[in-house]
Amino acid sequence: MGINAGSIGMRTVLAAVAMLMHVWLCGSAWAAESASARHAEVSGDQYRTTFRLDLSAGVTAEIYTLANPYRVIVDLPDVAFNLPEGTGQEAHGLVRTFRYGLFAERKARVVLDTTGPVRIERAAMTAIPDGKGIAFAFDMVTTDPASFGMGTGAGKSGVPPEEKPPAAPQEPEKPKTSGKPAIMIDPGHGGIDGGAVSVSNLLEKDVVLAVAKELGRQLTASGRYDVHMTRESDVFVSLDQRLNLSTKRSVDLFISLHADSLSEQHGAQVVRGATVYTLSERASDEQARRMAEKENASDLIAGINVVDGEGDDEVKSILFDLMNRETANFSADFSNVLIRKLKPATALAREPQRAAAFKVLKQSHAPSVLIELGYLSNPEDEKLLGSPAWRKKIAGSITAAVDAYFAKRTAGSPGP
Ligand SMILES: [Zn+2]
């Protein structure tokens, strides 16, 4: 449906929801369900900063603010972001950085990290002359934490329903094939959460999805397993959703795939190799602790309001379950066999087996590991991570580890 730029009439509704300030921009009845964004820009100064996104068509947008840390969230329908690489990386005015991408199927999101509490003003969609689409823009102005809190409820109450991402794209129900072990492959990040970035803009979310798909192919081809994935496309899936999928499928093994990145001062040039992480309440070392902190921040990055302390009890009880040791022992077994199988295929980190409190590994029913395939910050690792041949090889090693692990478990089980 074509949009007649001359007929654009926007209405802006300010709805003061208990927790959040919502600004709704409705492109009236003809608002497109999908659009593409070709340009994004931040302008202004540290008192009033404007965010502008040029779209191919008018859409319905929802803008709200979050605290801890201070962010502005813009929810959009299906927007394809055709923006130049590196867009959003530079600080300007009240905006530190911003990122964009799919938050769920047919739901896009922009998250702007701000330097402090801001209020949204003058949000509008206006026609760009000569039929060049729609400019969606709003201003952010500084406000003090107290009025930010009053307007947005950035306080202690619960997470508003809007903060739960819509249901993740889920694979169709597959009947459980008799007797085959079920494996959940979990490619980290996705959509708006790009994960780590290499010097040449290789994104962790893309690397791990490619390896996950290859691993899925190889495991499926063996005919020995029921294979599931937490995501099969470039879409955000929250950590809770990943855990829920694993529980729902009652999988026998959970493999989370990631790729790390270090800053220059932490040895970006020299530190390389794969690391296998298992769950532990106490991190094995400082680097492992930092790693878990980084990976656990995925929900924050995607603009989910993570309330401090929320779910702590649940997490603790799951950890307590793990103290029963069986699942933890199986995770350790799998980690050991993984290291053996990975060694001939790729470089391993100096201490390749570590442990930390990764939220996505907090599963009481399934042995789980998180594999950091390598370092996107290291030039040699980056070359490997980007190579289809290497991806095939590493997926082969993980498949061999899965085979060895289940062969041992079957052999070791008391039998009927
Ligand atoms: Zn990651």
Describe what this molecule looks like in 3D.
The N and C termini lie far apart (63 Å). The strands form three sheets. A six-stranded antiparallel β-sheet has the order 1-2-5-6-9-8, with no helix packed on it. A six-stranded mixed β-sheet has the order 13-12-14-17-15-16, with helices on both faces. It has nine helices and 17 strands. The longest helix has 25 residues, at 388-412. Strand 3 and strand 4 (48-55) form a beta hairpin. Mean pLDDT is 82; it is low at 1-24 and 151-164. The protein has 416 residues and is of the alpha/beta class. Helix content is 27%, strand content 30%. The protein has helices spanning 145-152, 204-221, 239-248, 286-296, 298-301, 312-322, 326-342, 379-385, 388-412, and strands at 11-16, 21-26, 34-44, 48-55, 61-66, 71-76, 78-81, 95-104, 107-114, 118-127, 134-142, 182-187, 226-229, 253-260, 274-279, 348-356, 368-375. The protein folds into two domains: 7-157, Immunoglobulin-like, CATH 2.60.40; 182-412, Zn-dependent exopeptidases (Aminopeptidase). Zinc ion is lined by residues 188-189, 195, 204, 258, 295.
Reported CATH architecture of the largest domain = 3-Layer(aba) Sandwich
Structural class: alpha/beta
Present as ligands are: zinc ion
CATH 4th-level superfamily of the largest domain: Zn-dependent exopeptidases
Unreliable stretches (pLDDT < 50, length at least 5) are: 1-24, 151-164
Examine the coordinates and then state which fold CATH places here, giving the name of the CATH topology of the largest domain. Aminopeptidase
N-to-C order of helices and strands: EEEEEEEEEEEHEHEHEEHHHHEEHH
The CATH top-level class label of the largest domain: Alpha Beta
Roughly how much helix do the residues carry, as a percent range?
A: 25-40%
Report the radius of gyration as a whole number of Å. Answer: 23 Å
What shape does the CA trace take? Answer: elongated
